[in-house]
Amino acid sequence: MKHVSIQNESPCECCGLIPLASGMKSSPRLVARSGAMKEGLRRASRFAASDAPVVVLGETGAGKEVLARVLHTNSARGGKSFVAINVAAIPAELLESELFGHGKGAFTGAGGVRRGLFEEADGGTLFLDEIAEMPLSMQVKLLRVLQDGEVRRVGENRPFSVDVRIVCATHRDLSALVGDGTFREDLYYRLKVLTLRVPPLRERTEDIMELASEFLRTSEDPVDGFTEAAKECLLKHRWPGNVRELHNAVRHGLALATSSKIDVCDLPDEVQNGTASLVHNAQESPELRSLKEVEMKHILYVLKACDGSQAQAADVLGIGRSTLWRKIKQYRESST
Ligand SMILES: Nc1ncnc2c1ncn2[C@@H]1O[C@H](COP(=O)(O)OP(=O)(O)OP(=O)(O)O)[C@@H](O)[C@H]1O
Ligand SMILES: [Mg+2]
Questions:
Q1: Quick check: CB of 243 below 6 Å from ligand 1?
Q2: What is the pTM of this model?
Q3: Coil, helix or strand at residue 322
């Protein structure tokens, strides 16, 4: 659970938002140099004035939680808690008591009363990350809370009211999930009152060097920049893992740098090569690679950029999770 409080920051010139959200561990400053990101912030500043639910859409690692935190910090609820939960990370059977709390003896092991995250977030914002992964049985319970403004702890009969703004995020196409029956249509329309879209990093190249420099600045390493060739690599890369992948690449560079500037050879292999040069090398190589090999190399690269999450990797690759799982299994079998 993470809490955020307002900081004494001067508002951003472009959108009037307070750009800094304390409690952000890895990057204390919000970077928005590109027109696309500035537009996102302008939207967020207007949504901060409202109390309606918000859905934040965007690829993995693009900055959905960052934007949700900025939205909260700049809203009237900014002085209260920002409580974040990754719905996909909690086992389905624990999600209800996590969100709504439980009474004493509600189930085996429930020794005492426990407050749920709705209670923790009372007066503030509850950020439901990876909302698309919420089991259908929980979706109906969430819908009821949104309709009634009341929660009931597991194992207790008495409901009580809570005042929570819901902001949720997903990297998936929620309307498609409604279409195939895995996301409730009524909940979809309840949540999707306001929509914020975080553009992928490859569509806002102006942010790349600014972010990379910010990550360097906060690293406490003596390294103070990038060689021209390294900058070129960073700007050309497609960043399927977005800002998180860029941050990892800078960490990689910092770990290997032997001078005051990060060079190309200090960057991760996939950033050095880029998919374009991967194809180029394959064509030039006397040992031409099979499509399967190139495919597997790309799958492994995307998996790495998604921190090993098969669900997110499948999404970036545009294939089903079971297809991805089958391909990895085939690859493992053929390489043993
Ligand atoms: N505009 C930005 N300025 C500074 N840091 C950023 C920015 N956007 C993202 N980051 C950093 O990049 C990382 C990923 O951001 P965040 O967790 O918000 O992404 P996300 O879209 O919620 O990812 P996921 O889909 O995996 O949940 C975090 O460490 C965050 O601090
Ligand atoms: Mg997130």
A1: yes
A2: 0.77
A3: helix
